[in-house]
Amino acid sequence: MIFLRYESFRSYLRYYPGTASLIAINLIVFVISRVYEQLINYGAFAAIPGVDAYGLTEPWRYVTSQFLHSDFGHLFFNMFALLVFAPPLEYLLKTAKYIPFYLLCGIGGNLFSALVTDLQNDPYHFAIGASGAIYGVYGAFLFIALMRKSMLDTASRKTVYIILAFGVIHSLFASQVDLWGHVGGALAGFLLYGLLDNLKRK
Known about the structure:
Elements (H helix, E strand, L loop, with lengths): L8 H7 L1 H19 L3 H5 L1 E3 L13 H4 L7 H14 L1 H7 L1 H25 L5 E3 L3 H17 L6 H20 L5 H23 L1
Antiparallel strand pairs: 1-2
């Protein structure tokens, strides 16, 4: 089972510096945002159909929004998922590829959410949180579970399916959850990992 963590704190930092750095940045930004509450207004992803449907007026929000969280519960849930599930992917991709992969998945989640907002003619869309990028990690493991089954043991494959199923159900029924950001992140992760896998094989 690749998602069980046995490393010591020091070993975790040594083996998974990318994931450890992402968690640290999220924690630091959360503390700062508690002091400077307006930080969320400046960093949240924003899409307003008819005005700026894809948030391109302030494109940095595609990235900054991934490090902002509404409250401690939001932060804790995302950081726990990152702490447990991301290390095996960092090991597979190596840190230099894993960090861009993670950020691109978050960008993909925001972009997909903006697209759905525009198609549905919703008045606006605002989003914060690392969940789009984290679902990108899940999407990568979904690709592995479906297309490269030999890379995962049975228990790990089942865990991937259960997490994604639970995530979809939770996103559908929980309030203030960006369902399409999650779907977009997972889709980005699935496609990006597939692209990297094909390039590696070639």
